[in-house]
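Intended use. Records such as the Integral membrane protein entry shown here are meant for training and evaluating sequence-to-structure methods. They are not intended to support clinical decisions.
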Amino acid sequence: MTALPLPIATTSDGGRLLRFALRLDAAGSGALSVVGLAAAPLLTDLLGISEDVLRGTGAFFVAYAVALVVLAAMRTIPRPAAWTVVVGNLAWSAGSIAAVVAARESLTALGMGVVLVQAAAVVVFAELQWMGLRRAR
């Protein structure tokens, strides 16, 4: 019995948009990971987000950014993996908005703004990734 091949994202633009969007997402996630890990003690009072949450989020972003770099570097990007990133990004954005609503008493105005701006940026990443996938044959 032979295994069925995974559908891959072969795109009319050679996957350039999808790869760009994945790398852009990785760069943003990597930058947030550095900030979350290195500056957590300084940001806690400024944002109203606990040091543990900032460090935990930073650690997650390290792993996520590495996964995106690996995915973008693949010769052919598996469609299920790319769709997982798109759906995950949309879920992250929705969760970020829910977190602002749930933590509105403890977050500072700057903290709310930072979380909402990163949520909007993640929606843009998801949109670019979705557009890259739409170009797939």
